[in-house]
Amino acid sequence: MVRLAGAVALCAMLAAPHYAAADADALWYIVNEQCVPDQQQFHSPKPCDQVDLAAGYVVLKDRVGDTQFLLMPTAHITGIESPEILAPGSPNYWNAAWQARHFVDERAHRTMPPETISLAVNSADARTQNQLHIHIDCLRLDVQAALREHAGDIGTAWGLFPAKLSGHDYMAMRIDRPDLGDANPFVLLADGIPGARADMAQYTLVVVGDPGGFVLLAGHGSGEELQDHACAAAH
After folding, report:
1. Theoretical Cys-Cys bridge with 139: which of 9, 63, 118, 170, CB 3.0 to 4.6 Å?
2. 136, 97 in Cβ contact below 8 A?
3. Strand partners, 219
């Protein structure tokens, strides 16, 4: 009964957009107290949609939007500033998140082109939860248009993107690879922008699919603002 009561209370809390700022550990509770134990004991990922114990992550449908999912480590990792994500041999959660985009396809009832899908991690100040989570969802149509217009301005090293996105400046770089298996965006940010490794908490990071690879966008604040949780690209 105690667990049931806790689950009911949690469900009520999760109904609020972006979870409850009053409980910054809500996502960690879902991962550690529900999804992982249920997978271990009952071979069911619920309430998550996927639990990969070997790879160390879960995928959870977010309460906001029809197509938004979150990928989270099974380890307790706070966010983009956590040293664990830059440690040698650490999992590439971005690659796992990109592979999990099929959940967006299923909710959109179509296979979404790669340039319409985005992954985002917010900065420490812009997030409400203290468990690393990568937002997986559609990209805003205006951001898609800006990336197409300025595709020739994005190189394989970080440079200032020539247009503001959602009113904010972003740095951009291109990854000319079919997947993120050998390219960890956290490491590319930390090692590619001067001073970023010592100031990761201030950064937001967004990965956008591209027909030839990926575009990385780094700024300050909430990269999630570039996503479209109504997924207009699917309509």
Report:
1. 118
2. yes
3. 204
Dump pLDDT digits (tens) for 47-106: 999 999 999 999 999 999 999 999 999 999 999 999 999 999 999 999 999 999 999 999
Written as six digits, the tokens of 71 are: 């990928």
Collapsed DSSP state (helix, strand, coil) of residue 230: coil
What topology does CATH give the domain 64-234? HIT family, subunit A (3.30.428)
DSSP 140: P
Count how many Cα atoms sit within 13 Å of the Cα of residue 114 in the half-sphere of its side chain. Answer: 15
Element of type H or E holding 141:
helix 141-149
d(CA 110, CA 233): 11
Q: What angle do CA 35, 32, 74 make, to 5 degrees?
A: 85
H-run or E-run covering 229: none
Question: Six-digit token pair at 43?
Answer: 């071979």
CB 217 within 8 A of CB 159: no
122-148 pLDDT, tens digit each = 999 999 999 999 999 999 999 999 999
Question: What span, in angstroms and rounded, lies between the C-alpha atoms of 117 and 221?
Answer: 20
Q: Name the token pair of 216.
A: 């990385």
CB 197 within 8 A of CB 224: no
